[in-house]
Structure formats: C-alpha cells, structure tokens
Design brief:
By secondary structure, this protein is α+β, with helices and mostly antiparallel strands. The chain is 49% helix and 10% strand. The chain has a six-stranded antiparallel sheet with strand order 2-1-3-4-5-6. Strand 5 and strand 6 form a beta hairpin. Helix 12 crosses helix 13. The radius of gyration is 33 Å and the shape is elongated. It starts with a helix and ends with a helix.
C-alpha cells in the first residue's frame, strides 16, 4: 500500500486521514493487503490495482459494508488478533466491532494461541482450563512437534497445583520403568518398544485418574515422561545401561574368555581383551552403534580360542550360533554347526549377547528354539512375522 502511495496513485485526503489516524481501519487494511504481499513473494510484483481497490471499501465504508467485504476477500487474521481484536466477534464476521479493542502494540503470542485453538477446534478438540495449563506446562500449547519440557512459569498460578497433580500421577505410573538404548539405530537411539510401553502406561493412568482431560493433554504428559526417560538413557554410560536393563554384563574377570572379535557386514573389525577397561557387551554395542546402517545389519561376535560365535541379523530379528565341530586339517575346511533362533527386538538381542559373553554357545541353549535347517527356520520366522 505504501508502494502505491509513493508511486503517486490517487489517494483521497479522507482515505489518507483514515489510514493514518484510525487505528482499527488501518489494521483492517493491513490484514487485507498482507495476502497480496504473500502472493507477490520476495521478488514478484505487488498487485497494486487490487491493493488500491481496497482503500475506499475498507477505510471509508460503513461497518456493515466492511464486514461484508471481509466475507469475500482473503485477509490475515493473525495481524488483527495480535493487535487485540475480539476473537469471538472475528469468528462471527464482525471485523469492525472486533477492532474496537485494538491496541497499537502487537502481541504475537496471542495470535499464535488463537490459531492453535482454531486448529484444535477444526479436529473437534476444545480445551478446558486444566487442559490448557498442562499443554503450557509442557511447552506444547502452540504446537506439539518439538520435544516437551517443564515450564511451570507458563501456567497460571491458580492452575499450577492441579496441573502438578496430573504430572505426579504420570510420574507414579512410570516409576521404575526405563527406555533403553537401541544401538541398531545409532549411538543415541532409544528402544521404540520401551517408549511405547511407558507411553501406554502413563496415558492409561492419567486417563483413569483424570477422565476430564482431553487427548491432547493426556498425550503431552506421556510424551514428557518418555522424553525425559529417553534423555536419561542417552546420557547413561553403556555399562550402566546394561545393568539397568537387567542383563548383568560380564564384570571384570568373571568370564573365562580372554578375547573376543567383533565384525560387521562391511569388513570392519574390533577386538576386545579381557584386561581392558570396559566390558565386552559395552564394547560390542558401541561398535554396533557406530557402524549399524540400513545397508549394514549383520554383526558377529567370535571367540577364536573357543571356536564359537554368534551372528546377529538385525534385518530379520534373528540370530545364528556357530560352533566349530572340527578344525580344518591338511587343507580341509573346518566343520561348523550353525543353528538359528528368533529374536524379540533389541531387548532380546541384549539378553543373547550378554548370555554368550558369559557362557558361550552353551549358555544360549535355554534361549531357543534353535533350528539347523535354514528353510525350516525361515518358515517359522515368516509365521512369526505374520502374527
């Protein structure tokens, strides 16, 4: 609009006066011109004819006619809400009346909250005071895509105690639960199954204790609990993470193994020695976290001295235990026994790796069934996946 004025296009004195002296009409004009600016983009040319055509109808017409015009054109409601417009009147199409409370200063957060509520209303969700307090506590009132955080200062003091009772319900529900790491997906990735279990537990408890809450509020509390648990896991040393998971990795000197070799499907290799500073399980899962990828999902642990090893197939949720039956002599190939078993997620892999490190292939017997026939095992695996 300024561009049109500076270009010397005819602007009546009455129009100029309304433009500069009537805050409400000025803001209404601004909200109507903004869509034209959006359409022009950063390099396009403003549709000056359309902009000038808005001058008289918005700045000089009667309120009823302005309201009628705004029902026909595109306009930016955020600008009006930020400057104090009555949102109820805006939604009823009474834009002139809505701007009687207009302020010179802008409050962008007010506009963001208004549009967040509109988006929720479009999918049938209307927040009560406690719902809104909880969403503000987790930082998810405006949008839920970012990680939640605890922001008690964002909650009205009168509602904070009630909101904290909801949070306490969630904390009690997931006390003792944890979200372990999943090195198959990277060094800092966490177990999706653990996340799902904790999320379901928290949400069920909150819904049972506080049935008046809408789904948005319940889900944000579950998200908060899971995010905090995942953060604790990512910042826990691998040795401690194994202990917390209940797999009891080999403490220094408790295993008869003196060395293990870790390899992946790309030819990388890492050696673990008994007198090293870290446990074999921690070293192995760190190796997996560093190397695992969509095209690198087979990892092996081998004890050359004992002539046995295990091979983990992350792409198929399966494992093979390999035992040397006869060493190759006189140029003959060694003879091996290879048996396959199913694995239930990262928790199953952790249990099997820990058992092998402590007791070798013999310690895996109780974790069967084990099948030596590849075709039979593949059929069993497909049946499992189908279930």
């Amino acid at each position: 609009m300024v561009r049109a004025y500076e270009a010397g296009l005819p602007v009546l004195p009455a129009v100029r006066r309304r433009w500069t002296e009537d805050l409400a009409r000025h803001l209404l004009l601004w909200s109507a011109v903004l869509p034209l600016c959006d359409a022009a983009g950063t390099r396009g040319r403003l549709d000056e004819d359309a902009a000038v055509a808005l001058l008289d109808p918005i700045l000089l017409a009667e309120p009823a006619d302005v309201d009628a015009l705004f029902r026909r054109i595109r306009w930016n409601s955020s600008r009006l809400v930020a400057h104090g417009a009555d949102t109820g009147l805006l939604q009823r199409g009474q834009v002139c009346a809505a701007m009687r409370a207009a302020t010179e200063t802008s409050n962008g957060k007010r506009a963001q909250e208004y549009h967040a509520d509109r988006r929720r209303a479009e999918r049938g969700t209307v927040l009560g005071p406690l719902d809104a307090a909880i969403l503000k506590y987790t930082g998810h009132y405006l949008h839920g895509a970012t990680g939640p955080r605890r922001t008690p200062d964002a909650v009205h003091p009168a509602l904070l105690p009630e909101a904290m009772r909801v949070i306490a319900t969630a904390e009690q529900a997931c006390a003792g639960m944890r979200i372990g790491r999943d090195p198959r997906r990277g060094r800092r990735a966490t177990d999706k199954r653990d996340w799902g279990r904790m999320e379901a537990t928290v949400e069920a408890a909150v819904r049972r204790t506080h049935p008046e809450l809408v789904d948005d509020a319940v889900r944000t509390v579950g998200f908060l609990m899971c995010s905090e648990a995942a953060h604790r896991s990512r910042n826990t040393p691998l040795e401690d993470d194994e202990e917390a998971a209940g797999h009891h990795p080999d403490p220094g000197g408790s295993t008869s193994r003196t060395a293990l070799s870790f390899t992946d499907d790309k030819g990388a290799e890492k050696k673990w020695l008994r007198d090293g500073p870290r446990t074999a399980t921690a070293e192995f899962w760190e190796f997996v976290g560093e190397r695992s990828a969509a095209d690198n999902e087979v990892f092996t642990i081998e004890d050359e001295e004992m002539g046995e090893g295990i091979q983990l197939h992350f792409y198929a949720d399966s494992i093979a235990r390999i035992t040397t039956l006869r060493q190759g002599e006189g140029g003959a190939d060694p003879e091996y026994r290879v048996e396959y078993g199913p694995v239930d997620g990262i928790g199953g892999y952790r249990k099997l790796v820990s058992a092998f490190v402590r007791g070798g292939c013999a310690a895996l017997e109780q974790h069967g069934p084990w099948m030596s026939d590849v075709a039979e095992f593949e059929r069993a695996r497909l049946r499992r996946d189908a279930r």
